[in-house]
Amino acid sequence: MPNLVILPGLDGTGARIGDFIRAVAPAVDARVIAFPTDEPLGYAELERLVRAALPADRRYVLLAESFSGPLAIRIGADPPRGLAGVILCGTFAKNPFPWLRRLRPLAMRVPVKSLPRWLRAPLMWGSSNPRRAPARERRAISAVATPVIRHRIGEILTVDETARLGAIELPTLILTAARDRLLPRAATHILLKSLPLAQVEEIDGPHLLLQSRPGECAAPVLRFVRRWN
Question: What is the pLDDT of residue 2?
């Protein structure tokens, strides 16, 4: 059975992508590598954690969403044995908000964990209905310590993996959201500039593609995994 390893978004838990995992099952054996909820680790430390958790006895495809894109790029540029391909979903190779870099100390203190539903619904879920976004206590990010979230935001604002991006020789699939209100299109253009042979699938959905459009994401992911795994 083809294998898919998923690196989650900013919360690092993968708790809200169960629908996507069910959408690719039973054709694919998918699992999430979760990140610590109480340790403020940067990309270098998380890369070591992920590499230690990757399968050592089978071929697999690595899927990274949002925050985890730079991790997949680092690993894809120096692939371990068994890595057959990389999927980059709604993500980036370098800081997608360069204008925020000067304001990094302030940006790291944005209360991401307590953003109101009326703001999260259109920004993350592509809906004008606040009820589309989960209540605060049901958000995956609620289980993650505030210093951890702040540290990850700081990592996003300083990351630049464009050099490693150009070193990736593995088959690559890029999933983009047609109605992404969080990630600028320039982030995808940077990916394509260094990965001109990458397969691209644009899905009609918001930033949280795996969570909001699990079935639509499953179709291209299954085709890719079956072909290269």
Answer: 84
